[in-house]
Each structure stands twice: as C-alpha cells, then as structure tokens.
Amino acid sequence: MRRLARILFFTATFTALALAIRQHGSLPERVATHFGASGQPNGWMSRDHHTVGQVAISLFIGGLFFALTLYLPRVPALFVNVPHRDYWLAPQQRAKTFAWLGSMLCWLGALLQGFLAFVFHEVWRANLLTPPALRLNSLWLQLSLFIITVGLVITLLFRFRRPTGDR
After folding, report:
1. Quick check: bond before 131 cis, omega within 30?
2. Quick one: 89 exposed, middle or buried, by C-beta within 10 A (0-12, 13-18, 19+)?
3. Structural domain count, the chain
4. 28-57 burial by CB neighbour count: b if 16+ within 10 A, else e?
5. What pLDDT, in 10s, does the model give residues 49-81?
6. What is the pLDDT of residue 107?
7. What range defines the domain where residue 26 resides?
C-alpha cells in the first residue's frame, strides 16, 4: 500500500507540473488569477508569472510532503498526536506506525496535488473565455473535500484504535 501511495503522489506531482507547462502557451498574456463569488475576475497577472507560480506551488507541495515522509520517523514521540500514542509509538510498533503515517502523507499529498491541478485547470478554462469567467459549482467540490477529510479522520481513528489487549 505504501508503494502505491508513493507512486500516486509522484504521479500527481508530475501531472500538476506537466499541466502547468502544457497550459502555458494557450493562456492569454494577461491571466485572470483570482475570481469573486460571482465568477468574475478581480485579480490579474502575466502569463509567465502565473505559470511560474503554478510550477512553484506544485514543486513546494511535492517537496514538502516528500520531506515530511522522510523526516517523519525522526519526529519525537511528544510531537506525534495519535490515539493511544504510548502503544503505537512503543519500540515494537514505531516503525510500522511511521510507515503507515508516511503512506497517509503520500495519499494526502496526492489528493492536494490533484485538487490544486483541478483548480489551476479551472483557472485555465476560465481564461479561454472572452471575457474570462470562472464557471464552477463549488458545492460539489466542497462536499467532496468534506467527505474525503472525514474519511481520512475515520481511517486514522480506526488504524490507531485501542489495542485489543488494553481494554
């Protein structure tokens, strides 16, 4: 499962970078980058700055989550907040616990990269219209993010439930 999570994370990161490069040429010189609640643009920047920003954000998120997965096993137990921490961070469980948390960070990083790629794709689509307008029904997006967040919390709580012999 950990290998799949890493593959998906790196795939999402490289896809986000590839989208930024692919979309660059079809953007107008002046890109609408911020939109009000009505979908009308209220913030602009040059095409080059937009693409550099998109690449920088994707690289930062990719680098941050990758660094966190590498650094995670070195985090002192005091700073790890999981249910029943004493059991799950005991020497006999510690490696498996951090391996699982590292996998979850990869899944979360992949989801975040996917979300950002989606947002940047919608900004790109909005800029193909004349005049630019963001036509996004954010209710389903917000609901999806809520469901994913609840799912991750439930997964975390289930994974770190009370040990069977400790009831």
Report:
1. yes
2. middle
3. 1
4. eeebbbebeeeeebeeeeebeebbeebbeb
5. 999 999 999 999 999 999 999 999 998 888 988
6. 92
7. 2-166
